[in-house]
Amino acid sequence: GHLADAKGRRVDFRNSIIVMTSNVGGELIKRDMTLGFAAHIDGERKQQTEYEKMKENVLGEVKKDQRFRPEFLNRIDAQVVFHALSEEHIRQIVDLMLNQVVASLAEKNVTLEVTDEARDFIGNKGYDPDFGARPLRRTIQNLVEDPLSEALLRGEFLSGDTVVVDCVKEEIVMKPLVKETT
């Protein structure tokens, strides 16, 4: 067979990687996979053991699930089961997304500094075990971008200012950085 684009033209897939995702076995990933001896192993070995067991169960679920025909599965070169996101992963994702906000503000000559408390609050508020890190974008938009845009339009922050984003009493606050005079 062949694949065609929306206009009916044949598409060349010779040097391509196709990424397909599925949530088959997703309920297995959510479950605590610690069994028997794995409970006594510490740290990384424990996590690796739990991951291997979960991966084995998920791949078994893919094979026995009737959604994918065996002839389809035989054509797939590799199946990857991802690790669950850790707090450190969420923090890195928050940093990457906030760097996009920092870059867009730099064009307006406004500097943005985000405290560790604010980063952690955004990560906790935006991460959902069911949806992963997807809600983080919306959380950053609601907690940082929208209020900051409104403050810029009101003239609370001007070109050349440094805006500090902090978390005070479970709420994101923004204030200009007060430069010390000597």
UniProtKB/TrEMBL annotation:
GO molecular function, one term: ATP binding
Clp ATPase C-terminal domain boundaries: 85-174
Claim: Protease is one of the keywords in the record: no
UniProt record, GO biological process: cellular response to heat
Keyword terms of this UniProt record: ATP-binding, Nucleotide-binding
Signal sequence annotation: none
Name of this chain's protein: Clp ATPase C-terminal domain-containing protein
UniProt cross-references to Pfam families, sorted A to Z: AAA_2, ClpB_D2-small
